[in-house]
Amino acid sequence: MSVFADKLIDWYKKNKRDLPWRETKDPYRIWISEIILQQTRVAQGYDYFVRFIRRFPDVYALAAAEEDEVMKYWQGLGYYSRARNLHAAAQSIVANGGFPVTYEGVLALKGVGEYTAAAICSFAYGMPYAVVDGNVYRILSRWLGIDTPIDSTLGKKLFAQVADELLDKFNPAMYNQAIMDFGALQCTPVSPDCLSCPLADSCLALANGSVEALPVKQHKTKVTNRYFNYIYVRTGECTFIRKRTGKDIWKNLYEPLLIEADADLSENASKLEQKIFDVLGETPICFFRPVKVGVKHVLSHRVIHANFYELVLPDDFGALEGYQKVAEEDLHKFAVSNLVYQFFSLILKPNH
Q1: Same domain, 61 and 137
Q2: For residues 235 and 352, which has the higher predicted lDDT (pLDDT)?
Q3: Is there a contact between 132 and 114 (Cβ–Cβ < 8 Å)?
């Protein structure tokens, strides 16, 4: 075992986090934990994991569930394609007779990349595959002083090679857990605790003062702005929602009436009213009010500028094209985005 691996594992034994998915070799539970922890902090993912496993204790329970229910259990975690991929992969696993037992088989699962496959195979099966995620990029780039961009083809190849060379082939599970915890707790993105770091005496970035500058990324994500006007249409004790489809954000989640515009309409009431009339036609509007305007919702590649409104129609209003009519008391059964959840929380009574 290398000195690097030796020091990491020694640190891990003293500082490791007590997490439920570390108490099992069950590839299903490890898979669920790894998918939840993609783009999600452990503190947030912990409770989701516990609830998810309680409802879907094995791959057969997950495969048999309706997608809407799976999405509901995922509500609030974001990056909802993870839940859709989990459900599809579970059905594939059941159709093929059980969870795959090779790296290639695990990698072939929908939504599983090289990092997740390495994590599952090392933790569940003890296979010698090194995990390479943001934590690993950061630790290796700092310790070795590598300034090759981690999002370049050369960088990805270089870091994968280095990670494989440093992996403790005899204890890959503990090594991989150690390097991930080390990145999360010790060699953090901002203000890492270099003074108490067991690798301080051999860290090139610390020696040359480049800790905060590493790792290097060459591409900046382009962020686009979108302008949403959500309208809670009330008719008696009912409202209207629809399931988002296509390849847009929040696919298969539900939302109230949405009017998307190319600019903020909160100061342009006449234009918004015209768009509402385009949807409702000649239906008389009993009441209309802004609930909250100027809500900014930041996603990885988009910023949603949202305005929330309430619109009341006659109690006998029948149908809204493209939307389904649901009782207000049943809204909690439908999976929604965090933005829509925020809107519903503002407008619905506490017992709903």
Answers
A1: yes
A2: 235
A3: yes
Give catalytic status of residue 267 as yes or no: no
16 and 148: one domain?
yes
pLDDT tens digits, residue range 126-174?
Answer: 999 999 999 999 999 999 999 999 999 999 999 999 999 999 999 999 9
Whether 235 contacts 284, CB under 8 Å: no
Task: State mean pLDDT over 245-274.
Answer: 91
Number of domains in the chain: 2
Q: What is the pTM of this model?
A: 0.84
352 within domain boundaries: no
Range of the domain at 202: 3-213
Q: Name 240's Cβ contacts closer than 8 Å, sequence gap at least 6.
A: 233, 256, 257, 320, 323, 324, 325, 326
Asked, for residue 219, whether it belongs to a domain, the answer is: no
Closest residue by Cα to residue 123 from 30, 18, 16, 6: 30
Residues 59-84: pLDDT tens digits? 999 999 999 999 999 999 888 999 99
Q: Are 33 and 21 in contact (CB under 8 A)?
A: yes
Set 34, 255, 310, 328: catalytic member: 34
Total residues found in the chain within this entry: 352
